[in-house]
Specification:
By secondary structure, the protein is an all-beta fold. The protein is built from no helices and 12 strands.
Length: about 140
């Protein structure tokens, strides 16, 4: 049986497929955001996923868990990817729009043929400005 190896994901605000096979990522985000108010709304929230070498065909899906552990069920995109020896596969997932409803740790799980092959955390924290000091 073939196995799909998850390598990494980059979170960003936009992905563009350029001519010549290039991919441009705009607004690349770290795995931790500080925000002033909730909900945090993105017109587009994108994931650029890199897989290991693929041989065969895989049904892949993304499951997103909110900080309370509940699956954000309406946001479970799926796709079929197929590869051949020597090629690295990439998936470009665009969620538009996307909201982080509350502060906390959001978990992005990557599934292939109903098996969880990787997960990444994305921490969203409320920014608390330091108290003002008066003399």
């Amino acid at each position: 049986m073939n196995e799909l190896k998850y390598r990494c994901v980059l979170f960003c605000e936009d992905i563009r497929q350029e001519t010549g096979g290039r991919v441009s990522l705009m607004g690349v985000l770290g795995s931790r955001l500080f925000v002033q108010e909730f909900p945090l709304k993105f017109p587009k929230f994108c994931l650029f996923v890199e897989w290991g070498e693929i041989t065969g065909k895989f049904q892949i899906s993304l499951k997103i868990k909110a900080p309370d552990g509940v699956n954000m069920g309406s946001l479970n995109p799926t796709a079929i990817i197929q590869g051949q020896p020597g090629l690295i596969a990439r998936s470009m997932i665009v969620l538009n729009p996307f909201e982080f409803i509350t502060a906390g740790n959001y978990v992005f799980e990557f599934w292939a043929n109903d098996v969880c092959v990787g997960r990444e955390s994305f921490l969203v924290e409320k920014f608390e400005p330091p108290p003002k000091v008066t003399n």
